[in-house]
Amino acid sequence: MTRFTLFLLLMLLTVSCNSTAQTALPVEDFSKAIQQPNVQILDVRTIGEYNSGFLKNALQADWNNKQQFADRTQHLDKSKPVYVYCLSGARSGAAAEQLRAQGYNAINLEGGMNAWKRAGKPVEGLKEVAQMSADDYSTLTSAASMVLVDFGATWCPPCKKMEPVIQRLKVKMDKKVQISYVDGGQHTALMDQQKVEALPTFILYKSGKEVWRKQGLVTEEEFTQVINRFQ
Fold first, then answer.
1. Fewer CB within 10 Å: C terminus or N terminus of the chain?
2. pLDDT band at 8, cuts 50/70/90?
3. What mean pLDDT is predicted for residues 104-121?
């Protein structure tokens, strides 16, 4: 093999390696990409950073909290791309690399939220809401003979996964149980009062008294069995 032939082979290999799927995008390209249907947006900053401003429809999983990150990201959909961001791009770059190793098509935002804001791109913020009091919660849980409280949050991946299950349950069990949603991302004091340690958490009340609770994913069949058991 001549030196020229060897050189050509090396060049072809380099082109081949560089032609793999995009792993990071600058702000403008990232902005266009997340406007497409069937995408997932993941904020890997802390919840405090997230609450200070986030991208529309972003889920949240703290990269620095390894257990939380693993628990939440396992519920992402591998058939849909995941667009990942943090403050400057370092944490999200590492997070995207790990997600790709697990089979996700993960794309990092170059420069993170810093670059996003410098480019004048829109940022969502949490609306100020009055914290639900213990008395308000007691009224909620006594509003019907049987009440199922769904503690969730818009940024919580497993909570999003539970949404269609809850919607089907509302239709199926409409005459047996009242299902009420409490935003754990907003009503943090209430979560502490009720000892809700993770989202989602589901608590069933009968005549205002807690009779069952479960953290994490619950099937429609399990909900049905529990509600029928305490009816």
1. N
2. very low
3. 97
Active-site choice (84, 95, 106, 159): 159
pLDDT at residue 1 in the model: 53
- Alpha carbon distance 60, 80 (integer Å): 17
First-last CA distance in the chain: 81
pTM above 0.90, yes or no: no
What whole-number distance in Å separates Cα of residue 181 and Cα of residue 32?
Answer: 33
Set out the domains of the chain in order of their start, with CATH numbers.
Answer: 22-118 (3.40.250.10), 134-230 (3.40.30.10)
User: CA-to-CA distance for 152 and 163, rounded, in angstroms?
Assistant: 10
The two three-digit tokens of residue 185, written as one number: 């991302």
Catalytic residue among 61, 146, 156, 182: 156
Task: Check if 17 is active-site.
Answer: no
Q: Alpha-carbon distance 117 to 202, whole Å? A: 37
Question: What one-letter code names the amino acid at 105?
Answer: N
- How many whole angstroms from its chain centre is CA 16? 34
- Annotated catalytic residue 156: yes
Residue with tokens 């069990």: 173
